[in-house]
Structures
1.
Amino acid sequence: MASTAVRPVRIIVAKVGLDGHDRGVKVVARALRDAGYEVIYTGLRQTPEMVVDAALQEDAQVIGLSIHSGAHMTLFPAVVAELKRRKATDIVVFGGGIIPDDDIATLKKQGVAEIFTPGTPLQDIVGWLRKRFPDGGG
Amino acid sequence: MWQEDFESAPARDDGVETSTISGIPLQPLYTKEDLPRREEELPGRFPYTRGIHPSGYRGRLWTMRQFSGFATAEETNRRYKYLLANGQTGLSVAFDMPTLMGQDSDAPTSRGEVGHCGVAIDSLADMETLFSGIPLGEITTSMTINSPAAILLCMYIAVAEKQGVPAAALGGTLQNDILKEFIAQKEFIFPPAPSMRLVVDSIEYCAKEVPKWNTISISGYHIREAGSTAVQELAFTLADGMAYVDACLERGMHIDDFAPRLSFFFDAHIDFFEEIAKFRAARRIWARYMRERYGAQQERSWKLRFHTQTAGVSLTAQQPELNIARTAIEAMAAVLGGTQSLHTNAMDEVLGLPTDKAARIALRTQQMLAYESGAANTIDPLGGSYFVEALTDEVEREAEAYFRRIDEIGGVIPAIEAGFFQKEIADAAFRYQQELEQKRRLMVGVNEFMVDEDVPIDILRIDPRLESQQAERLREVRRKRDQARCTNALNSLRKAAAGTDNLMPYILESVRAYATEGEIMQSLIDVFGIYTEKAVV
């Protein structure tokens, strides 16, 4: 456990794209909150610009994206590009959804830190964040 | 005596739950003592627990209706012809996200979404291509669309006109269930009140003009897939159904004029017996409410007819071939539950769009059930089973408890606005996920019996050029159409939306004038506004 002076890592959890499948994003948001992170869920149909706005406004260190419509190859890189444009590349982006393996490799090359696919234990996501932010809450 | 033997015998200690997947506690054994005391129930007789047809599947098998759509209208048209040639008996259209959300393919927020999880339809021109060479008077078609449902139905009617098929001869189903969008799938656009008006407009219009059309498919599928339990799926869906009935009655319609064309759509999950109990309870509850609360006189109004789809959420990306077995179990539950039509998922749907081969295996699974397994030979074969009858009653009781809670909140729409359903579903989804993590529930290949091998499986990919091609088609439609007719139609629609006229004729004229889906929706948004949900985690 980190010292109490350390602010817990703040995570923006967002649904990008047009689909409204929010089961996964809500389960993950709740698990991250239970693990001690500060979680802000943006709700549905966020554009990449809206997500980055929210992250900057909330001073978040992490953005978690969820999508189930198949538009991940357009929208995930668009979030990364928007972070670059706003000079906020220190914000870590991860994502989840129905995303084929080949796409995962490409997305990682484009700056998405990690992708979690269906069936991932929640503890794996928490574990990954703990490794990434060893003294940041959780 | 048995009880003592049971208790003295060693019990399994694997820690796996023995309650149903929805958490209904189960006894290790059911006997005559558990059979409810009631008059004998028979198929085709009120309350239809054992089925709505006296002849069950002896009279007619369920319709094998595979939900399908991707890329362009042209490519989907090819897939439909392939499925029909392979013995499929009805069509079911999957639209892409922009179409579902009432946007044209060239809208900025359609970026990356065109043709991905369904077919892209922007105007009547696309719909003509989608059904080219498919005689609409001879097949039935189901269309999964909600906020813009009235527009797509008008497009279908307009295509039929061009084929020389009168609207009165059309058969099929429009999902058109906006309440479950607010509750679960979240593809809402307008606020609840104007959304309900559009639903009632289409029901009222079809009662006169398209009498063989199922005007709505009141859906539990999405509620379940969003994480609800079986009981919640059943209770929320039937509550939605009653909310539509109330809205139509308020419009001044007579119950027996619209009730026979209300249809339902349920999930078939992996917990075999619970699902069968759910289907049987659904029929009994609906029949009772229609006859007793709403005073429907016609038997057709009492009968709950439903489509079933096997559970997408039960499929696993790990060892995906196992999904064939899961789907077979779920489909069997649907058949033993007496479904009128069925979609079986393809094994690769958890990875992406189904390939031709996976889609064919899914269809073949139904054909095996129908023709090899013997499941269709006897009506409601589980009727009278101590266990299934007791479980049917238990599911019914728990659904009734939910009806009371919804009533206490003031009805379905106030409960939506209070986030009641959303929270119930999110809680259930989280509970289930925790049970998986604690291995109190097992998913084969996911949290137990894993293998460390990559199974290469073909995935259907959408050509990234499709988006610009579809946008080009759309520009051409706008260029070629009679712009004055189109503008007039949209203006009349806007004016009508501000009043109280039934909007269907105005939408139909806009569609005939090749107004795009996005333009028609925008005209309605101008009057109705849009709805945003307060996000609840």
2.
Amino acid sequence: MHLKLRHSTRYTYDTPVRGIIQMLRLTPRPHDAQHILHWRIDVDQDATLKPSEDSFGNIVHTFWAEGPLESLTITVEGEVQTENTNGVVQGTPERLPLGLFLRETRLTTPNDAIHKFAGKTAGSKPTLDALHALMEAVHKRMKFDIGVTSVATTAAEAFKAKHGVCQDFAHIFIAAARSAGIPARYVSGYLREDGGREQYEAGHGWAEAWVPDLGWVGFDPANNCCPTDAYIRVACGLDYLDAGPVRGVRTGIATEQLDVEIQVTQGSNQ
Amino acid sequence: MGKAAFDEMNGFGGEHRAAYRQLQAWLEDTPVELLEQRRLEAEALFRRFGITFAVYGQKDAEERLIPFDLIPRVLTASEWKILEDGLTQRVQAINALIIDLYGKGEILKAGIVPEELIFANEAFRPEMIGVEVPGGVPVPIAGIDIVRVDAEKFYVLEDNARTPSGVSYMLDNREATHLLFPDLMARSKVRPVERYPDELLAVLESLAPRSASSEPTIAVLTPGSYNSAFYEHSFLADKLGVELVEGRDLFVRDDVVYMRTTQGPKRVDVIYRRVDDDFLDPLAFRPDSMLGVPGLFSSYRAGNVTLANAVGTGIADDKAIYSYMPEIVKFYTGEEPMLHNVPTYRCREEEALKYVLDHLPELVVKEVHGSGGYGMLVGPASTKKQIAEFEKKLKSDPDNFIAQPTLALSTCPAFVDGEIAPRHVDLRPFVLTGSKGTRIVPGGLTRVAMKAGSLVVNSSQGGGTKDTWVVED
């Protein structure tokens, strides 16, 4: 599928801020089923984007903008060509040992309830079946609700509350998979939903888990499916904190208003 | 406590060990009243130094003095030589371990340390994988805790590769001895420790990134005046002649770290940081940290600033990793370890756990990630009820514990409640490693359990400190 993305993030401050530093994970890497045709990031303030790569192989841009700033807009525009591989991800740079992806993080520490849920759902099934069962069970248990959880909500909290957004679904899936002994990780990116919807208020988040013979396979518990060619895969990590699109700090006392606009459209195939 | 402990002055009883000959004669000649007077003077002195220590978890978290015991501990030059060689070897292995774990991972491939012990460990920082440590030495400052059980045998009790503290006490204690007992000092051939700050400065300078000038700018980064070790941070900055900064005094632009000064921004090359990994940089680690410097880790990755110690060195402090140190030393140095580990049962192993559960009243059980004497069981000193409670904790999460036999730690004469009596001690030498090799100031910080028979020397648990002498044989 030929996908076109436009993602703008606008911060408006009620009093000018003195400076902003941000770290962006907004640039996808190609893999066997994802070709980057065109991609650029713009910041509307005087700032240089310094590219680097983190331990997970994600492309990171860091920038510093000097104040006083009344607003800041980051615009991402890109085009990718994707293929449907039923979630199987190949051709990504894999430098980290698999064992690392069994590690608990603050956002993905399983509590007793998640351990039990994982044990009951995954049981002694073969890995791939276990993961599908987990995805389905998370999807069934959780209600998709915007605004009740935040970026700091843990898997255990969301599991108890039984609702959340894609990130919470993914964290629960990851916590449960690791509890069942299956390496798992968080993935951030974009999704063009079925039905021709083009405007979104947020990016998407899902999970990948390691299946012997297949390698990393994507699972999207919020949509109860494996990622298709409608997904743009951008960054991965142990949890949202490693892979989320923007981490930043500003100096100055101000209240910020955040406006995010995401447009994912299907281009015409040549 | 069962077997008698080795006393560094009197051996196993009645002996007069050569190391203490002079000190012992002095103690016999010095009236207790004079010692008592000196003790009061010492207290006033330490109040003036401003040495205090806040104890976590105590309701009245008021700052208090760590007791200073007047009577120096004495090691001979030949005893010190054994320690010096062994410590150098061990710290070189620790540095090699850190570089390997975040690099090629050869020790894991060789199956010497189990992978899951490393990867599941919070002190292991995935962010460091593949990062070339600016300066090339991840652990320039190590504090290795040593205990002694007889005339020959020293054991390593614990490795501290994260941010070992206590060196200010070593230096203040020596100064106090000079002031309180000038005649005794003049008579004794004690090797000096006063050059520690110069050695530390030389080490930090030697590890400056390539971008730095021949006189690199160094700063000590502290979490602030509410931190329990703030005294030491300001003390060290002062002795090193460098700025003491908090996170908000530094900023990062284009991957370069600057310090705000009255003359404008000044580039910083080396940061002796006393802020934990988690709080160093809200962009890379805990996003809610207010103590760190946003962008610092990015600058570090780019090789523009040296952090002493490096990020992720705490993995070497883990007590489960500790149990593999003899193999680790062999793997990296190709030599037999000169310093011994205390025999350690890993409760994650079924057979070891069974043994530990059967012998709790004899053992010391510790949390693998714990420090400061918190969360441990000293079997012989515990009630049946305490042991039963601990047993539950241990059974519910065996991976989290190791156990060791209760060692009869050596004792030294101490001046307590108006008399001289033996008290158990340990020793933390400070091992400095720069680009030109490893240096250790002779001695270290001796910690002493002030209660009779107690084996817990941690200052958070009421332990005191002593001046530590290395004297010519």
3.
Amino acid sequence: MIIDYEVLKLIWWVLVGVLFIGFAVTDGMDMGVGTLLPFVGKGDDERRVIINTVGPHWDGNQVWLITAGGAIFAAWPLVYATAFSGFYFAMLLALFALFFRPVGFDYRSKIESKAWRNAWDWGLFIGGAVPALVFGIAFGNLLQGVPFHLDELLRPYYTGSFFGLLNPFALLAGLISLGMLTMHGAIWLQLRTSEPIASRAKDWAKIVGLGTIAAFALAGIWLTLGVDGFKVVSMPPLDATPNPLTKEVIVDPYGWLTNYRQYPWTLLFPILGFAGLGLAISLSMRDRAGLGLIMSGLGITGIIMTAGAAMFPFIMPSSSNPNSSLIAWDSTSSHLTLTVMFWAAVIFIPIILTYTTWTYVKMWRRITVEEIRAQDKLAY
Amino acid sequence: MLDSAMVELSRWQFAITAMYHFLFVPLTLGLSWMLVIMESVYVMTGRQIYKDMTKFWGKLFGINFALGVTTGLTMEFQFGTNWAYYSHYVGDVFGAPLAIEGLMAFFLESTFIGLFFLGWERLSKRQHLAVTFLVAVGSSLSAMWILIANGWMQHPVGSEFSFETMRMEMVSFSEVLFNPVAQVKFVHTVAAGYVTAAMFVAGISAYYMLKGRDLAFAKRSFSVAMGFGLASILSVILLGDESGYEVGDVQKVKLAAIEAEWHTEPAPAAFTAYGRPSNEDEETHDAIKIPWLMGLIATRSLNQEVTGLKDLMVEHEIRIRSGMIAYEYLQRLRNGQDTEGNRAMFKDHMDDLGYGLLLKAYIDNPAEATEEQIQMAVKDSIPEVAPLFWSFRVMVAAGFWMLLLFALGFYYNAKRQVQDKRWLLRAFLFSIPVPWIAAETGWFVAEFGRQPWAIGEVLPTSVAASSLAANDLLISLSAFIIFYTALFIIEMFLMFKFGRQGPSSLHTGKYHFETLEKQQAATTKPETDPSGAGAPSASAPANRHLGDGA
């Protein structure tokens, strides 16, 4: 079956979004758990309870991130090239933080030393909190435009600095990302641990959740009033051979509201963000953490879609040379590659979801300190 | 023109992180299947010792696996961070197998690995075996996809350059999939991984036998390793990578460089057993040659000749000049002079565009290169010969050494005498690093031998790098070295700790150190022996059959 090129370009924008949301909802959860680990778990046994709630799943969850990276490489090669090399030290910071996770989970409980285990607990904290923060900061910078341009052979040049990325709006975006994932992790812990850990997690979910809602609202206001958007003035037909140097882009103070004005149904995304988070907090407080977890997942989805819908079709706008901006219509791979990858995704994503669900079902239980003690040498 | 110091440092960073990653990959590839074998025996016979074997070797597997995951992340990030132009130029082709690797292999492997470690109490016997099996399938599939990607770098089939998008684009997915270079690479690399795991299990089991402890456990593990190892080493050697050297210019250059053959020799070519190859003088000093042998190794025939490097360089010079024309017309086309004549001229020289780009190391516009620059690019068109020559010989020697060990081990094991052949057990123990040496030198030959190309004949390494500053690289490279060194020390500490402890680390109460403790508690009640608690000794064969229980 042949699918039109412009349809595939749109589908791949959606699929990359799906992979990012998959990452945030699954791996984001265990990153949130890592972030909370040193604060919610008192003593070694409790911390092991916390770690073992995500122990069997974090690695599979992390593949959402790896696959999202691979999908960007294959579907939007120029975006992968420009973003990863431009955000060089930010990417390496996230990478080095992620290093702590595989070794942290597997090595931590193999040695019975307080100092050893405590050190890895902070390692898991870094591995959870830092990438969550960095990915949010990266999004915050995308929304403001990134200083880069392409030369005539399409080589990207980044002209900003690492510290330029750490501007106030980007940091706010980082906090939203960290906040929503931490809240998600807290509700997960409320659902999967026994007292007193569950109650502590519940308190965290409330505080962090309310903070995230406030930050999300603030970012919305800031974006509307204080952050310039971008707008495509002219470009080749949607199904044209991708060439990011053939369009005209201007800075438009209200550019990020264009889609919301033109397609009011997209306002459902910010509503989903607020409602999801709000319901998650309220359900968590009423000890209905299972439903709360679903709601926080939906809230995260809403927040990510809010940013995506504001920017569409922009993926990576350029602040220094707007015409070099990378958009969903002119930064994609060839028709054939998008087709091959589309079928790979259509076949494998349902399979992945099926067996992932099976593993969650199999490992589902409330983990207690007693269980960890009984399985001292077997558990993480 | 990119800063050459930055390109050089980017290469060092990639080489260090890739070869470091490859310390952990082969063991994962092989050990996952050995775990499947051990656990299958457990499920079929119900004998507890095979479950213990699965758990113990699984523990070591996990220590290794964690670093494999950690360092694998770097590889995915690094194409984008450090090889941005590469990512743009070939992402259309190279990215696809990588993304499919994620969807098809990584998800499988990573989703089930957690259940392998933590699911023993929550899964039925058969379910757990299925989980172990899926981990092994996942890791081998992942090797397949990454080698399809790598095979394309060596021999870029199924794709075509497009001047409109200024990149390589896929024209046939099946050609990329069934790339002959990828096929042989997959078999060779995966089998090498199986050998690595077999040596690892055999070496550590030999240690227990030498120490005279946990014999039932050690002998069974050793037996599994011998069967698996002998079959694997035979595959590695018989289905060597050489068969892939017949296709494509890069592979031809690599082959000539491995053999330090400067001039084309009449078939069948001689094998240079020793020599000092020099790129400067374009010859090999003090060569000691064995007639016929190379023709047999390289082409598997007596009448096919191996083209020498000098003759290949003559071809390269022609192609560089043609590449300059390609570049000239590419510029015209990109500047909007999209006429039929320009298209036709570009099309005629398009296949040599990559050779033209070799000049980018010396001049921004290759179309204007001087004669001197062309000659420098010709010199650059082959890799440094000496490191390849020696790495290849080290790899082959390591391979044959392991063949000898596995053959002897298999023989004496079948005769049930291996326990008494202490020299052989010692040889196994001290040969544990050998498969890693073979794997690393082999990988080095494959990748260093591809130089000066990032993508064979298409994109030179010097053009592929990101537009970063040398300082950026100094910082990141230092950080990698510090982190990786620390991780390596931690990993080795755990490996040695649990390797020495052996199955006692499972705390089943049946194995050496625990039974030793019990015995001591029973016999030396009044007096406590300060040295007895954990010291391994060769004098405790009492637990010979303890592992057989249940």
